[in-house]
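Sorry to interrupt, but I need a hand with the structure work. It will help me judge whether the discrete encoding reads sensibly. Write everything out right here, beneath this request:
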Amino acid sequence: MSLIRDPWVGGRPFLPDGLPVIDRLPGRENVFAATGHGMLGVTLGPATGRRLAEYIRTGRRPEVLAPFGFDRLGG
């Protein structure tokens, strides 16, 4: 008899280049996204949250978030 009642299953969000998006939504002043971490979402969540909170609080994008912008997706 299995003890697992509700297994955690489902797709993991990935972007074409394999990197997450951590950025302000283009065209919106008060909407931010932190998604596409794939299977590392739980692991990277605290670091993502800290840097995203800094961005939201100061209005200045931390340099460490440069590779994770919407602009790299060309859309």
Strands lie at 21-24, 32-35. The mean pLDDT is 89.
